[in-house]
Amino acid sequence: MEVERKEWILEEYVHGGVPTSRHLKLRTTSVGVSEDDVPDGHVLLRLHWLSVDPYLRARMGSQRDGLYFSPFELHKPVTTFGIGEVLQTKDSSFSVGEIVLNTIAPVSEYCTVPADALKKIKLGPDSGVSALDYLGALGIPGFAAWIGIKVIGDPKPGENVFISAAAGGVGLVAGQLAKLKGCRVVGSVGSDAKAKFLKEEIGYDDAFNYNVETDFDAALSKYFPDGIDIYFDNVGGRMLEAVINHLNTHARIPLCGMISQYNQVWTERFGVRNLLNLVGKEARMEGFLLDWNRFGEFVEETTGYIKQRKIVSKYEIYRGTESFLESIQSMFTSSNGGKVIIQVNDDAKA
Amino acid sequence: MEVERKEWILEEYVHGGVPTSRHLKLRTTSVGVSEDDVPDGHVLLRLHWLSVDPYLRARMGSQRDGLYFSPFELHKPVTTFGIGEVLQTKDSSFSVGEIVLNTIAPVSEYCTVPADALKKIKLGPDSGVSALDYLGALGIPGFAAWIGIKVIGDPKPGENVFISAAAGGVGLVAGQLAKLKGCRVVGSVGSDAKAKFLKEEIGYDDAFNYNVETDFDAALSKYFPDGIDIYFDNVGGRMLEAVINHLNTHARIPLCGMISQYNQVWTERFGVRNLLNLVGKEARMEGFLLDWNRFGEFVEETTGYIKQRKIVSKYEIYRGTESFLESIQSMFTSSNGGKVIIQVNDDAKA
């Protein structure tokens, strides 16, 4: 038996600007869904939810753009984290009907993947977490926030923490983690509504709209009269430079990603002129990726926070695999509030 | 009894360019050298040797240049590390004729300072170290090299280490420390003679002249086919940017100072465009100053290396306090090879 599926293919690397239909093509194919169609050690999934994250844009550039993330292969499906239901399995650790996390999910309705790409997740009324949490606070964004705040930033109570792209999937969790450590937390966002949301619903001490307060130096003077101890950087560029003029001694800058810089080839990116200040301030700037050795520790700690409602989530949900290109483009226009997710099927359960 | 002395005064902050006679003035005064001229808890010294270091330039800019080092006070003497002989003392821990290290020595022939600005040093035939060592490998440059390599860089045997301004006071020691840790060490310098010197006399694995190999990207590809694990940055700017394109995963960049950037106000400094690479390479860039809590540990370890001839030194000696302005200017023209020192008196003993 075969079913029709759509999937997004990277046909051309994006050397500058936002990905368009020139780079990403929606292809319709069919896939066998009988037990015989699944190779040994593999699992066939029907996908329910897919994670859309800024780093995917970085993987759509080639090495010559100096992005230094492993690029997607050309003419192959783009992959991300997804939640799906096991339709067929040739691996005994999984069973039909089980809901699993797929770390290399194509943007598609169906996929067949090696079992070791899947992670078991605990759902159900007693678990206290939802399937969506595994793409948000318990997924890539939450894990990035946890590494950046806990491992790199190592906040002390009372420290001043600044988070850019603070209403995005990563920023939302990062701010809440810093609050849980007893810090004062301020975020920058792209709209007044998001600033209001962070203050009223997420517990940020303050937030500002960088499209309105465009003099970043003045904004940082206003929101950080005592300087910045930790800057969780999601944007890079002009904001990063402005922050470096407001650092306290021994400040830390976890570099999570730089969404303002992904759409330029590297020679056209913003040049940060004040790195010399890091010397006098004895400050540390440190890039990080996800350290899978610590995934278990992260899940355990964060699950506890979610159950106790100490970390809350917000999602921006796009419908259908067709919406992938639009959802990626939306990342670069400040239009989203919350973690961006694609609901693949109408009957997907959160 | 009074003696005549000259001393250098900072009359105007240097907002751009190299310090000139407009900023630094040589003033002649007289100073009392009788016991009665020395306040309680103070010591009167006749200075023999003075340390001239690039960071002094940074302290000659005001805060608005964004240098973020504590600036010298206007209309006051510029101070540095110096070696001198006790002429009079009103502090019982020191005795007349003793040779001491003065951490706030004016660029002058005589000075009266609080006893707590002095550090005792061990000299003489049995000590295995010279007075000059206390301004070099055992002084500010050596201590900076030790913190940057040992504390921030933490090299593993076999790692690839790159050192800029490698024939300067700091670079000389930093390279030798990295070699002692079993690393492969390459330096950049401003002349062929210095490159030869590093390779033949200091034990660097290789060195290149950045005035000849002006395509830094090509030079780094050539000298670091396996990438860079530690970059000890003394220069900043264009070299720092080039290095960031050659980093290995988990690379460390101790930021010691940025001599290429001191002479510009911050908005005119070189903008580093590829900080995004730090994310994908999980690399760390960290500024540091001298951590005096570790001075004892540093002196003990480094004294051992000097006695065993595992760390060797080279000095560029200027004569007389009058030469201070010229010696500072020389730092920015690649003309020095080795640690720059002023011999204050003709009878000063090394």
Plain-language structure description:
The structure is a homodimer of 350-residue chains. With 350 residues, chain A is of the alpha/beta class. Chain A folds into two domains: 2-122 and 314-343, Alpha-Beta Complex (Quinone Oxidoreductase, Chain A, domain 1), CATH 3.90.180; 140-287, NAD(P)-binding Rossmann-like Domain (Rossmann fold, 3-Layer(aba) Sandwich), CATH 3.40.50.720. Chain A has helices spanning 54-59, 140-153, 169-180, 192-202, 216-223, 237-244, 276-280, 295-307, 324-330, and strands spanning 2-10, 24-32, 42-52, 79-89, 99-106, 110-114, 118-120, 160-163, 184-189, 206-209, 228-232, 247-255, 284-287, 315-319, 339-343. In chain A, the strands form three sheets. In chain A, strands 3, 4, 5, 6, 7, 14 and 15 form a seven-stranded mixed beta sheet that branches. Chain A has a six-stranded parallel beta sheet with strand order 10-9-8-11-12-13. In chain A, strands 1-2 form a two-stranded antiparallel ribbon. Chain A is globular. Chain A binds chain B through residues 58, 66-69, 236, 240, 245, 255-258, 261-262, 266-289, and chain B through 58, 66-69, 236, 240, 245, 255-258, 261-262, 266-289. Chains A, B: Pfam families: ADH_N_2, ADH_zinc_N.
**Mean pLDDT reading of chain A:** 94
Query: CATH-wise, what's the superfamily of the largest domain in chain A?
Result: Medium-chain alcohol dehydrogenases, catalytic domain
Instruction: Look up the CATH topology of the largest domain in chain A.
Output: Quinone Oxidoreductase, Chain A, domain 1
Largest sheet of chain A: 7 strands, mixed
Q: In terms of quaternary structure, what is this?
A: homodimer
Coarse structural class of chain A: alpha/beta
Number of alpha- plus pi-helical segments of chain A:
9
Of all chain pairs, the largest interface belongs to: A-B, 38 and 38 residues
From the N-terminal CA to the C-terminal CA of chain A, the straight-line distance is 28 Å
Count of distinct strands of chain A: 15
State the shape of chain A.
globular
- Uncertain ranges of chain A: none
